[in-house]
Amino acid sequence: MSASNNNITGDTNAKVTGSTLSVAGSDSTDDLIAVNHGIKDGTMISKAVSNNTWSAGGLADNRTTENLSGIVIDASSTHGLSSDVASLTVQLGDKGANLAGSLNFVKISGATNAAFDNSSNAAVDGKAGSLNVGAFDYTNKGGFIGGAAGASNFATRAPIWRAR
User: Fold this and answer.
1) Residues 83 and 57 sit within 8 Å (Cβ to Cβ)
2) Measured in whole angstroms, how far is the alpha carbon of residue 87 from the centre of its chain?
3) Are 54 and 140 in contact (CB under 8 A)?
């Protein structure tokens, strides 16, 4: 019998509350802010068994970058969990019984929030800057459960010889 219990929990928050932001717009590419909130194709587990089933991590390394201007409020998180469980049961002889099994419990919980609450974006010199608000959460959970069982029943009989 084998068992696995895995938990990932946590919140990611980015929030501006009760503020007045004054940001001048800019046409310069030097004023851009690089934000990693996309994910490359093929990174997420999308079928029963893939390379990511065995190693569900790698999400943080496979983010894509977008260049934004102005105010950026970005909450972004990644979670990766691979839980592989195997069990082996062997019974020799004809006495007794065996019970074999594998259990794999995975719980992923939390929230990713980005907010611009009770605030305003004021223009400077008649030109308001951009306001970008985004919340992105990527989770990969890979798991494999395997088991093998075997039984053998054997008996021997030897003749008994008596000398007369």
Assistant:
1) no
2) 24
3) no
| Range list of β-strands (E), the chain | 2-17, 20-22, 33-39, 63-68, 71-92, 102-117, 120-122, 131-152
Q: Tell me the torsion sign for CA atoms 58, 61, 67, 73.
A: positive
Identify the CA nearest to 12 among candidates 105, 143, 131, 138. 138
Cross-strand partners of 90: 150
**What are residue 62's phi and psi, to 5 degrees?**
-115, 30
Determine if residue 27 is left, alpha or beta; phi over 0 gives left, psi from -120 to 50 gives alpha, anything else beta. alpha
pLDDT in tens, the chain (164 residues): 677 788 888 888 989 888 887 776 666 777 788 888 788 887 777 666 666 566 666 777 888 888 888 788 888 888 877 777 777 777 766 666 666 677 778 888 888 898 888 888 776 666 666 788 888 888 877 777 777 777 676 666 666 666 66
Strand, coil or helix: 75: strand
Token pair for 14? 């980015």
Residue with tokens 């004021």: 122
Strands 102-117 and 2-17: what pairing? parallel
Give the C-alpha separation, 42 to 51, whole Å: 10
